[in-house]
Write a structure and sequence with these properties.
globular, mainly alpha, Clc chloride channel, 454 residues
Length: 454
C-alpha cells in the first residue's frame, strides 16, 4: 500500500508524520515567529526612543523652567501638522485603528489606512515627539499599532492557503505590542482575548499566542525581568481596608467613565466653539492644547508632564506625596493631549490618574498606601478602557502584586461595571470614528434611459 507520507520516515507515529508532511505549515510557523521577533524589536525601539524623549524634556525643563510655555505648544502643533500631512492614520492611540482594520466592512486593500510598516515608523517617531513636548501620553497604545503593522506585513510572506488570516495577525501583533511595552506577556494574551479578538478561532490559535509571548519575552530579555514599577510591598486588603477599597473602586468607576465619555464626545466633535475650532484649524487648536498642558505642568512643578511613570513609581515607593488635585489635573492634561490629535496612548496616564486616586483615599482613610494605590491603578484603567481582566492582570504583573490578585480583580470589575453605566466602550466608539475615514464607494453608473418612442 502506498504511504500517504512518502517523504517522511515510515517508522514515525502517524501523528508525527502528519505534522511533518506539510512544509507550508512549518513555513507559516517560521514566518509568524520571525515577525513576532520583529514586532517585539519595533516596540523596544519605541520604548527606547520614548524614554530618550522624556529624559530630554526633563533636562530642558530643569535648565529653562519656563521653556514649556513656548516649546510644548510649538512642538504639539508641528506634530499634528506632520501627522495630518504625511500619516493621518497614526494620530491618536493606535488601538482603535487596529480594531477598525479588523472590521469586515474594511476591504483588504484599505487596511493600509490603519496598519502598515509606514504607519508603524511614523507612530514611533511622532509618539516620541509628543513625549518630547511634555504631553501626557503613553507609548502602550502606539505599541499596539506598531506591532500590529509589523505582524500584518507577514501576510506577504506566508505560503498560499495558509491557515493564518490577516485578522489573526492583527490580533497577535496588537497583543504582542502590549506584552512588549509593559513586560507583561500574560497581560498581552488577555488583551488579545478581551479587546482585540471577536473570533473564537483567533483566540484559540496556539501559534498566535506563542507569538504574543515571544514578543513579551524578547522585551524582558532586553529590558530585564524586573516588573515595570518594581516590586511593591502590597498585601491583600484587610477587613478594615475594605471600605477604602470600595471607595476607590466606585471613584475610579465614575471618574473613568466620565473620562471615557469626555474623550468620545471630544473626538466626535459637535456644534460647540472648541470643536468647530478644532475642525477648521486643527494645527492652531493643537497649539492651544499644548499651551494649556504647559501652564498646568508649570503650576504642578512638572508633575503632570509626560506619561506619568516617574510620579506613579514614586507614589508606590512612598517617596512622594500627591496633593488632592493631582489626579484631576492629570486627567485634564491627558484629555487635552489626546484631543490635540497627536499620536499617543492613554494607558500610562490612566495608571498615573488611578495611582493619584488611590493615594488620596489611602491618605484620607489612613490605610496602607501601596495596596490602595495599586487598586486605584487597576480600577481607573479598567474604567477608562472597560477591559477589567486586562487591567488587573497588567497591574498585577507590573507591581508583582500576586498576593492581591483577588483584590485587584474585584476592584477592576466593579470599576468597569460602574463605567459602563456612564460611557460606551471607549475603543469601540473610537474605532467607529476610524471607519469614517474609509473612502466612499464609487457611485454606480446610472442606467441608460430608454430611447424615446417614435
Amino acid at each position: 500500500m502506498k504511504s500517504r507520507y512518502p517523504a517522511v520516515p515510515p517508522w514515525l507515529p502517524d501523528e508525527a508524520r502528519d505534522e511533518l508532511s506539510d512544509w507550508r505549515r512549518w513555513a507559516a510557523r517560521t514566518v509568524i515567529m520571525v515577525f513576532a521577533v520583529l514586532a517585539g524589536l519595533g516596540v523596544i525601539a519605541l520604548t527606547w526612543l520614548s524614554e530618550l524623549a522624556l529624559t530630554t524634556f526633563r533636562t530642558l525643563h530643569a535648565t529653562w523652567p519656563w521653556l514649556p510655555l513656548l516649546w510644548t505648544p510649538t512642538l504639539t502643533a508641528g506634530i499634528v501638522w506632520l501627522s495630518r500631512r504625511f500619516a493621518p492614520g497614526a494620530a491618536g492611540s493606535g488601538i482603535p485603528q487596529v480594531l477598525a482594520a479588523q472590521d469586515p466592512a474594511v476591504p483588504a486593500a484599505a487596511r493600509g489606512l490603519y496598519v502598515s510598516l509606514r504607519l508603524a515608523l511614523a507612530k514611533v517617531l511622532l509618539t516620541a515627539g509628543g513625549l518630547l513636548a511634555g504631553l501626557s501620553i503613553g507609548r502602550e497604545g502606539p505599541s499596539v499599532q506598531v506591532a500590529a503593522g509589523i505582524m500584518h506585513h507577514a501576510r506577504r510572506w506566508l505560503p498560499q492557503r495558509s491557515a493564518f488570516n490577516e485578522r489573526g495577525l492583527l490580533v497577535a501583533g496588537g497583543a504582542a505590542g502590549i506584552a512588549a511595552a509593559f513586560n507583561t506577556p500574560l497581560g498581552g494574551v488577555m488583551f488579545a482575548i478581551e479587546q482585540l479578538s471577536r473570533r473564537a478561532e483567533d483566540r484559540a490559535s496556539g501559534l498566535l499566542i506563542a507569538a504574543i509571548v515571544l514578543a513579551g519575552l524578547l522585551a524582558v530579555s532586553i529590558h530585564g525581568s524586573g516588573a515595570y514599577f518594581g516590586r511593591i510591598d502590597a498585601s491583600p486588603l484587610s477587613t478594615a481596608a475594605w471600605g477604602a477599597g470600595l471607595l476607590i473602586a466606585l471613584s475610579c468607576g465614575v471618574l473613568g467613565g466620565l473620562f471615557a465619555r469626555l474623550l468620545i464626545r471630544s473626538m466626535q466633535g459637535g456644534p460647540d466653539r472648541f470643536s468647530q475650532w478644532r475642525a477648521r484649524y486643527p494645527v492652531r487648536f493643537a497649539a492651544g492644547c499644548g499651551l494649556v498642558v504647559a501652564v498646568i505642568g508649570l503650576l504642578t512643578h512638572g508633575a503632570t508632564f509626560g506619561s506619568g511613570y516617574a510620579p506613579t513609581r514614586a507614589l508606590l515607593e512612598g517617596q512622594e506625596a500627591s496633593h488632592g488635585l493631582h489626579a484631576l489635573l492629570r486627567l485634564i492634561v491627558t484629555w487635552l493631549s489626546a484631543w490635540s490629535g497627536v499620536p499617543g496612548g492613554i494607558f500610562a496616564p490612566c495608571l498615573a490618574i488611578g495611582a493619584g486616586i488611590g493615594h488620596d483615599v489611602a491618605t484620607w482613610t489612613q490605610q496602607p498606601h501601596p495596596t490602595l494605590i495599586a487598586l486605584g491603578m487597576a480600577g481607573f484603567l479598567a474604567a477608562a478602557t472597560q477591559n477589567p481582566f486586562t487591567a488587573f492582570i497588567i497591574v498585577m504583573e507590573m507591581v508583582e502584586g500576586h498576593a492581591m490578585v483577588l483584590s485587584l480583580m474585584g476592584c477592576a470589575m466593579l470599576s468597569s461595571g460602574v463605567s459602563r453605566l456612564i460611557s460606551p466602550p471607549l475603543y469601540v466608539a473610537l474605532a467607529e470614528l476610524q471607519l469614517a475615514r474609509l473612502p466612499a464607494p464609487p457611485a454606480s453608473a446610472p442606467s441608460p434611459s430608454p430611447p424615446p418612442p417614435r
